[in-house]
Specification:
Shape of chain B: elongated
Number of strands of chain A: 22
Oligomer: heterodimer
Radius of gyration of chain A: 23 Å
Largest interface: A-B, 73 and 72 residues
Number of helices of chain B: 10
Distance between the termini of chain A: 55 Å
Largest sheet of chain A: 7 strands, mixed
Structural class of chain B: alpha+beta
Number of helices of chain A: 16
Order of helices and strands of chain B: HEEHEEEEEHHHHHHHH
Number of strands of chain B: 7
């Protein structure tokens, strides 16, 4: 057994920032990651980091843009602390040596991004995430923070009180990939989940193969509700063949979208007459697919993104990485021809419910970054808001877990924050199919922390043993079926019939998952085993996304429903919550907070 | 993920594992499972032979697992994978794993050349599998091996520990002599200086350069191109200040530092991010000389 004050699960941007913050508070902190920190998906972020740094800008404008962008599904206390903390975080990153692109006066450059009323997106070429990830990992090395790399955290050690709000998290259990050892990690003060995205629930995604929603699924099964899971962002510019992301920076710099008739359709067909290509991502994604569906797409699949007119010098200075991506993954020279693009799954706005200090309803359990839902992004995340999110909320979670004296949270969490029960009737029992009470973390005896952890370790060892010993089907079949149905039925455009079909397919996936086993009997670097366990998590998050989408009978932000073409503020300014109820998702709602201690927001129609 | 549909062979293929003197029930079940896997493999081979593709690539993949009987001796496995335009070597490996042999082991994650986890030895050269287009490779067969000069853990996975140690040895973190008084004020960096260090900051720690370097192969203590490039990234950053630069030069001019480099350019040739590694090493040599000649 390993023991530390704070255990951070995941070592991408949010995890690294949390670890540094906890360390600065004097905690003994360790990072546990299934990759190596520099392999994390934060490194793939391209565009930039929003923060009000310059004259003429201030945090209130940034907060306002973020609330408007969220389509009034964000919580004001989260949005306000986010916009207030972001400038300090960005300057600190600069003080840590981040190689930002520079202005003539030597200060970090900023550029315009979609949905932003001021050019407040600080960037480092079109590879901002790479530099952010490496800069922060360097600071972790400098501080001597312990890193357990290639250790896959498979479960949380949580006490088994009936009410999740009475439960405590005492640590986590991880599988050492190189050796096959299953060990407990005792956390004296807290566990922070910073496991990143869940894009692998879809088959066309910008997300890394490692982004399997592990944190969401583990927290969910431990009793933390998942919030607004239906809010999946589809990025309008991904390469058709692979899902590789072409940064919004291209449009920020002036890139233009054309259909097959070489029409600038964002204006020509009136999707966004004010902002054109720089409208919010959901707006642009729908516009592109509408063009394709109306027969104006190229090869009935994609549209063109043209940056040639920007000139070679500017492209090389600010978007060079995009040239490499288009060349390596699509065989297109962006200096000579337009790039093919189409929408792809990009980001989960929803996730593990937590407050503005990263705390969940379970004592000692925190979440930060994409796996968390504070809620900051509401129904739509603005480009350039993901990196400051992981800085701001990673740092807050790290500080809080390490025992820093922080203001009480304004955002209420847990079942007691419920405002009304949900009433969606799924077409099938969505849940467990004997989903394995073994997987419910909270079945440990409510006793001493070490015993809770040891109990969880024993159970995880048994799970690994049985996966290795038994015969069964390959998880890859289950995984690809779920990914396909999600892309087919729970995509940019959603209809009730499709959503119900997806739930049936996921249910079938659950049934088949009962029969999976790992063909490779080896204890050494068994990726077959890792992927099999990940697939279980994919099933849980896919189901939560689809159920949330079925429940929300309105059109808000990224969530479009064929049957409901209006944003219905009277009824739907509320969060969709899903709680694990013995393996069957229990749906309820929680109010959106449009007021913080600083400001009150009035919902306005979105116009572009 | 490959979208090509294809007849699906069976899902298991493994070898028997070592028997122990006293067999526990778990060991027995695992041994039985491994025995069944051997039978399955025989069937798979028959089925595979029956498969015919219009256009296909032949993958010859290095296999080794110290723990599984029949795989503890290194060998090559052949996989036939349907080919489509735009397909990368990583796509072919994933296809082989998901359709033929789920025990086939390799690292990969971002599949867009930023995570650095899938550097492999492909047709005799260090490359990232995810950005290597099959159409760009010569020959009928693609030979995929783990990075040379590193210890193989299993199949295509090598132990990166030594590489990480060398990276850490150059104190790879920003450490400015002084920061602006106002904590909300940025350190100024000229565009020229940012441009100067730009290429060096692109390193994704994939280890291709280290694996291609003859010197690193013969001298385990040699810092190697990636670590020296990391040192360059900081030594040349004007924000750190002169004192720190002197310390950084002292690190790279040690016995197993820059002077070991024999300017063979193999690191520069294989770098998937086009970092001029050899040039950076040479520049640090010059800086180091200047540093030591007081009358300069």
């Amino acid at each position: 057994m390993y023991e530390h004050d704070v255990i951070v699960v995941g070592a991408g941007g949010a995890g690294l920032r949390a670890a540094i913050a906890a360390h600065e508070e004097g905690a003994d902190v360790a990072l546990v990651t299934k990759l190596h920190p520099v392999r994390s998906h934060t490194g793939a972020a391209e565009g930039g980091i929003n923060a009000a740094l310059r004259d003429g800008d201030d945090w209130e404008l940034h907060a306002y843009d973020t609330m408007k962008g969220s389509d009034y599904l964000g919580d004001a206390p989260a949005i306000d602390v986010f916009a207030q903390d972001a400038p300090e975080e960005v300057v600190q990153l600069e003080h840590w040596g981040m190689p930002f692109s520079r202005e003539d006066d030597g200060r970090a450059s900023q550029r315009p991004f979609g949905g932003m009323s001021f050019p407040r997106t600080t960037y480092a070429g079109a590879e901002t995430g790479h530099h952010l990830l490496h800069t922060m990992y360097e600071q972790v090395v400098k501080r001597g923070i312990e890193v357990y790399d290639e250790w896959y955290v498979t479960n949380l050690a949580v006490t088994d009180h009936d009410d999740p709000e009475d439960r405590e998290c005492h640590g986590a259990v991880a599988y050492e990939i190189a050796t096959g050892n299953v060990e407990g990690f005792r956390a004296n003060d807290g566990v922070i989940l910073a496991t990143g995205g869940l894009g692998q629930a879809f088959d066309h995604t910008t997300n890394a193969v490692a982004n399997t929603g592990d944190g969401c699924a583990m927290a969910y099964r431990a009793g933390v509700p998942l919030e607004d899971m239906e809010m999946i962002q589809f990025h309008p510019t991904t390469l058709p063949s692979t899902g590789v992301l072409i940064s919004e920076g291209v449009r920020g710099e002036g890139g233009i979208l054309y259909n097959d008739d070489e029409e600038r359709f964002m204006f020509e067909y009136g999707y966004a007459n004010n902002d054109g290509e720089l409208a919010s991502r959901d707006v642009v994604s729908r516009a592109e697919l509408t063009e394709v569906n109306n027969g104006r797409g190229i090869e009935d699949e994609y549209v063109h993104l043209d940056m040639r007119h920007l000139g070679e010098e500017r492209i090389l200075d600010r978007l060079e990485n995009i040239l490499h991506l288009a060349e390596d993954f699509e065989g297109v020279d962006g200096l000579d021809e337009p790039m093919p693009v189409k929408p792809g799954q990009h980001y989960a706005m929803g996730g593990i419910e937590c407050d503005e200090n990263g705390h969940t309803c379970i004592d000692g359990l925190y979440a930060a970054g994409e796996t968390a839902c504070v809620s900051l992004h509401g129904a739509n995340r603005l480009g350039g808001n993901a990196l400051p999110e992981l800085l701001v909320f990673g740092a807050r979670a790290g500080r809080h877990a390490a025992g820093a004296d922080m203001k009480d949270a304004e955002i209420a969490t847990g079942p007691s924050a419920q405002s009304e029960p949900g009433d969606v009737e799924p077409p099938v029992e969505p849940g467990a199919v004997d989903a394995g009470s073994d997987d419910v973390a909270a079945d440990g005896a409510a006793v001493e922390p070490d015993e809770v952890l040891e109990h969880t370790v024993r159970r995880e060892r048994e799970r690994v043993e049985s996966l290795l010993e038994e015969d069964g089907i390959n998880h890859a079949e289950v995984r690809s079926d779920v990914q396909e149905t999600m892309t087919e039925n729970v995509n940019v455009f959603r209809e009730e019939d499709n959503l119900r079909q997806a739930l049936r397919d996921i249910r079938r996936g659950r049934e088949r998952y009962q029969d999976v086993a790992v063909a490779d009997p080896s204890r050494t670097y068994n990726t077959d085993l890792i992927h099999t366990m990940e697939t279980r998590n994919i099933l849980d998050v896919a189901e939560a996304i689809t159920l949330g989408a079925l429940a929300r009978e309105e059109f808000r932000g990224a969530h479009w429903r064929a049957e409901f073409q209006e944003r219905r503020d009277e009824e739907w300014i509320k969060h969709t919550m899903l709680a694990w109820d013995g393996g069957t998702p229990n749906l309820y709602y929680k109010p959106v907070l449009l007021e913080s201690q600083w400001k009150e927001y009035e919902p306005k129609e979105r116009s572009y | 993920m490959s979208t090509i549909e294809q007849q699906e062979p069976d899902e298991t293929e493994t070898e028997t594992e070592t028997e122990t003197a006293v067999e526990s029930p778990g060991d027995r079940r695992r041994r039985e499972k491994a025995d069944r896997a051997v039978e399955d493999e025989a069937r798979r081979e028959t089925e595979e032979a029956a498969d015919e593709f219009d256009e296909a690539v032949d993958l010859k993949v290095f296999r080794y697992d110290p723990e599984v009987q029949g795989k503890e001796e290194p060998r090559f496995d052949d996989f036939t994978v349907p080919f489509h335009k735009g397909m990368t070597v990583l796509d072919a490996l994933i296809y082989s794993r998901d359709h033929y042999d789920s025990s086939l082991t390799f690292r990969h994650s971002c599949r867009q050349a930023v995570c650095g986890s899938d550097a492999l030895f492909i047709n005799g050269r260090q490359r990232l599998a995810c950005k290597t287009q099959i159409a760009d490779l010569d020959g009928d067969t693609i030979r995929v091996e783990p990075l040379p000069h590193q210890e193989v853990v299993k199949d295509l996975v090598v132990d990166m520990e030594h590489f990480y140690e060398q990276m850490h040895a150059v104190e790879p973190y920003f450490d400015a002599d002084e920061l602006p008084d106002d904590e909300m004020e940025e350190q100024r960096q000229s565009r020229e200086n940012r441009e100067k260090i730009k290429m060096s900051t692109r390193c994704i720690w994939c280890g291709a350069c280290m694996s291609s370097c003859n010197i690193a192969a013969g001298d385990n203590e040699y810092l190697g191109p990636a670590a020296i490039n990391k040192a360059y990234r900081f030594a040349m950053d004007e924000r750190e200040g002169e004192n720190r630069k002197q310390e950084r030069l002292r690190i790279v001019e040690q016995e197993h530092g820059v002077w070991r480099c024999q300017t063979q350019f193999s690191c520069t040739e294989v770098c998937p991010k086009d970092i001029p590694l050899t040039e950076h090493i040479q520049e640090l040599k010059r800086e180091s000389v200047k540093n030591n000649l007081k009358f300069w």
